[in-house]
Inverse folding.
């Protein structure tokens, strides 16, 4: 299995609080992604990174920010959590674009109450 | 921009029957295509991928998919369904893009149900 670790695996937080999810990889892959998975919507890209300090927005980036200060770590922050951000969040890594597959973490189940 | 459409959010087949999960893509440049499987409470795992070497691609667990450019399709099949195949399946398209731009897009997924 690709070395990807997401933490925490489960979290319950209150509306209005900031939350940070961490993705850690040991594969030295260039690309890292944050997706959210919701019933009926499949996987939707939140943000991605194509190198240290190089990030870009995805399809559903509002309310989220990311940081990548080291190759191995990609952090997703919910500035002020809302109930609509209750979801399962997946991190993925990829060595390059094109014909290479992405490898996924086990997911973080976030509940905002 | 590229896109993926998976026909049928739920597909139900009997154990031992043919499995057919449909995926159509849209891309202005030659695509690379992937099928992933997700078991309950797990992340996605790669089933197979098309990278232009061969149009018929064989993957794990007896699955295969055929790339048909004329139909812009990449349907996933398995001759005989097994109870352990019950899962969520995602089709994805990737293209080469310049700079750091991302070119990996997923479909909404198809939930495969196996009837005993």
């Amino acid at each position: 299995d690709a070395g990807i670790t997401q933490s925490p695996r489960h979290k319950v937080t209150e509306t209005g609080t900031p939350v940070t999810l961490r993705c850690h990889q040991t594969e030295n892959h260039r690309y890292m992604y944050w997706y959210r998975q919701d019933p009926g919507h499949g996987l939707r890209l939140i943000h991605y990174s194509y190198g240290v300090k190089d990030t870009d927005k995805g399809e559903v980036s509002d309310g989220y920010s990311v940081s990548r200060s080291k190759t191995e770590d990609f952090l997703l922050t919910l500035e002020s959590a809302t109930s609509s951000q209750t979801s399962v969040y997946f991190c993925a890594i990829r060595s390059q674009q094109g014909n290479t597959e992405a490898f996924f973490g086990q997911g973080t189940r976030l509940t905002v109450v | 921009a590229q896109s993926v459409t998976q026909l049928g959010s739920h597909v139900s087949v009997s154990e031992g029957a043919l499995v057919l999960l449909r995926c159509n893509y849209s891309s202005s440049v030659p695509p690379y295509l992937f099928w992933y499987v997700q078991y309950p409470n797990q992340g996605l795992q790669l089933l197979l991928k098309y990278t232009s070497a061969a149009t018929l691609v064989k993957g794990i667990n007896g699955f295969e998919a055929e790339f048909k450019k004329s139909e812009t399709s990449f349907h996933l099949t398995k001759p005989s369904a097994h109870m352990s195949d019950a899962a969520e399946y995602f089709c994805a398209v990737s293209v080469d893009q310049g700079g750091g731009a991302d070119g990996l897009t997923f479909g909404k997924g198809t939930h495969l149900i196996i009837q005993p």
The mean pLDDT of chain B is 92. The first strand of chain B starts at residue 3 and ends at 7.
